[in-house]
Amino acid sequence: MSKKVNWKNKNEVNAWRRQYRRDNSERFKKQAKDYHENNKEKRKDIWSNSMFDGKKYDVLERDNWQCQECEMSQEKSIVLFNRELSVHHIDEKGVNVSTKEKNNNMDNLITMCMRCHKILHMRLAQKERFGDLLEQDDSEYRYPRIREVLNEKKKKLGTITKAKHELAKEMGMSYWTMDHMHYERKEGFLTEVEKRKRRNLNKEGSE
Q1: Rounded-to-10 torsion of CA 37, 43, 26, 14
Q2: Cα separations in angstroms, 30 against 35, 41, 50, 81
Q3: How far apart are CA 131 and CA 74, in angstroms?
Q4: Which of 41, 104, 133, 172 has a Cα-to-Cα distance from 140 of 20 to 30 A?
Q5: What's CA 158's distance to the chain center, in Å?
Q6: pLDDT, tens digit, 9 for 90 and up, residues 38-79
Q7: Residue 71 CA to chain centroid, in angstroms?
Q8: Which residue in 91, 94, 90, 85 sits closest to 53, CA to CA?
């Protein structure tokens, strides 16, 4: 930048820094890439210490380097997802809380693969968003409370399609998402471990 900067003026200094980064963006990108490539192990240790009080690898060792949901190994996780196994805070206070609030006791940490970890957080987000609409009963359907609400709306609006459109709009989702939730059965939400157990039981029963 050719303009003279008043180094005592904070706004001018910040503006100069922003422009300097824009003018040298490729150089900064290369430096960042080189740092990440050359310091992978160091970054892993920093992450482990900041997120899990240095216990990440202790948890992985305890869990035999396997996802505790689907039993996926570290090697398979790297091959399928190009990611190592994750460690999850069971009390859901792993992010967006202060270090003092985190419970990094071993019994609050569990090994998960990327896929199972993502599914878990999707379900937690659903619970936060839908509240008591996710309450369960003994029926075969995954979302019985949503079905009840839809049936009430159907009585008022005349058709289930109109009821789905209205509830979807109220909840800020697409019609097709609501349609899926209306028909989804619990069978589709069995975990990999549960599916394997069920297959084993069926196999034993047929022998």
Answers
A1: -170
A2: 8, 19, 26, 25
A3: 35
A4: 172
A5: 38
A6: 766 666 666 666 678 888 889 999 999 999 999 999 999 998
A7: 18
A8: 94
